Amino acid sequence: MKEDKVKLISAEGFEFVIDKKAAMVSQTIRNMLTSPGSFAETEHGEVTFPEISTTILEKICQYFYWSLQYASGKETEFHIEPELTLELMMAANYLHT
C-alpha cells in the first residue's frame, strides 16, 4: 500500500482505499495510524471496523473528502439519507468525526 493511502475495511470485508489525509479527519483513525509500536494498522495502513457496515463506512469516506473540501472554503451541503442517520451518528461518534 502506498504511504499516502489507507485501507478501511467494513464489517462485511469491503475495502475502501482512500487518501491518508482524508482518513486523518477522524481522530480515532489518526490515533490508530500514528500510534507508537508495531500495530498492524500502523505497519500496513489498514484499519478494520467489525462494527461498521459497508453502507455506513462508504458514507463516512465520502464525509472525509467533503470535510477536506469544506475546510478549504468550498461550502457545500453534505447529504445524509434519513434511514442512515442513527447508524451514521453512532459510527461518527466512535470515529470522533
Could you explain how this protein is built, in words?
The chain has a single domain, classed as Potassium Channel Kv1.1, Chain A, CATH 3.30.710. It is 47% helix and 13% strand. It contains 5 helices and 3 strands; from the N terminus they run E-E-H-H-H-E-H-H. Strands 2-1-3 form a 3-stranded mixed sheet. The longest helix has 18 residues, at 54-71. It starts with a strand and ends with a helix. The mean pLDDT is 89. Keywords: Elongation factor, Nucleus, Protein biosynthesis. This is Elongin-C.
In terms of DSSP E residues, the strand content is 5-15%
H/E element order: EEHHHEHH
Strand order of the largest sheet: 2-1-3
The name of the CATH superfamily reads: Potassium Channel Kv1.1, Chain A
The CATH topology assignment is Potassium Channel Kv1.1, Chain A
Number of helices: 5
Largest sheet: 3 strands, mixed
Segments where pLDDT lies below 50 for 5+ residues? none
How would you describe the oligomerization state of the chains in this entry?
A: single chain
N- to C-terminal distance: 24 Å
The first-level CATH class name? Alpha Beta
Radius of gyration: 13 Å
Tally of extended strands?
Answer: 3
Class per helix and strand makeup: alpha+beta
Q: What is the CATH-assigned architecture?
A: 2-Layer Sandwich
Outline type: globular
- Indicate the percent of residues in helices: 40-55%
Mean pLDDT: 89
Number of domains: 1
